[in-house]
Amino acid sequence: MTLVDSDPAATMITVEHLCDFAIRFQTMQTFVTSLGTRMIAVIDHGTVEGPRLRGEFLPGGGDWITIGSDRVARLDVRATIRTHDDALVFVTVTGRATLPDEAIGRLWAGETVGWKEMHARSAPLFETGADPYTWLNSTVAIAVNELSLDHVNYRIYSIK
Questions:
Q1: What is the enclosing helix (H) or strand (E) of 3?
Q2: pTM for the whole structure
Q3: Can you give the pLDDT at residue 4?
């Protein structure tokens, strides 16, 4: 018998809104390689807004996206947040996004594609040594994303 079969509570996952990210990029670099299309988005600035986590993204982090021949975008984000009270929090995000043809056309035209218009899900992980935020080190989170060529927005939920 598996854990799921023996414990109905194991299938009851609850989430709680943790925060929202709103990130602006410098000019996105896009080019084709033998592994797929690379999209490199360096962070210009951004904000973090939530009940327990507020701050800003420091410039220089980024999102290294690879779109394979299967049309799945593989997200690889690394960035630093400076909280409203001056603590530093490192965040990494992995995830996947698939866009229907119509949404891809709108993206390349410079429009924002919303989370209801595509399948874009990611998993932020946090790392810090700042005492008020060490709870983030054990937080497992999921996010829905919306994106454009010059910015990305995340709605992030912690898993309880």
A1: helix 3-6
A2: 0.89
A3: 57
